[in-house]
Amino acid sequence: MQRFVIALVGLLVATVGAEVVDFGTCPGTMKCTVHEVRISPCPEAAKQKPCTVIKGKNATIEFDYTPEWASQEAKAKAWWTTPATDLPFIGMDEKACKFTGCPIAAGQKQSYSYELPILKTFPTRAYDVKWQLLNEDGEQCCFIIPIVIKTKRGKV
């Protein structure tokens, strides 16, 4: 029981600290509604600016979604995206059921929460990140968020 209370308090603290961020939609057909995207830490969200994440630290990305599809074993992917190409985000755990309830039911609002390590090897700069949640047939929930990766010293 004590573990449950500690886990619940930790979840509430993490959720309270997360900031709602602006996000864009992915190109192509999507049978899913993304209701809200939150990132923690992201004090920049209050000024509607891209979140700044620090190398060597973790950032938590959460979103609420309602798919028009079902899935027994969903997959999650993140990409550095540009108009020319998408590059996979290195080190991401793609087993989405660890971070959202599975099976995923069509028409049921759910949440996804992932602690994203910002590796020290990532180049310091601004990025657009495309985040996908996919079922076995490739149907997806997808959104794009801008982020800025900085070093501890605050250099861009």
Which keywords apply here?
156 residues; mainly beta; 6-stranded mixed sheet; 4-stranded antiparallel sheet; 1 helix; disordered N terminus; NPC2-like; secreted; sterol binding
Structural notes for this entry:
By secondary structure, the chain is mainly beta. The chain has one domain (19-150): Immunoglobulin-like (Sandwich), CATH 2.60.40. Helices cover 10% and strands 43% of the residues. The chain has one helix at 2-17, and strands spanning 19-21, 24-25, 32-40, 51-54, 58-67, 75-81, 86-88, 110-117, 125-134, 140-150. The strands form two sheets. Strands 2, 4, 6, 7, 9 and 10 form a six-stranded mixed β-sheet that branches. A four-stranded antiparallel β-sheet has the order 1-3-5-8, covered by helices on one side. A hairpin with a 4-residue loop joins strand 6 (75-81) and strand 7.
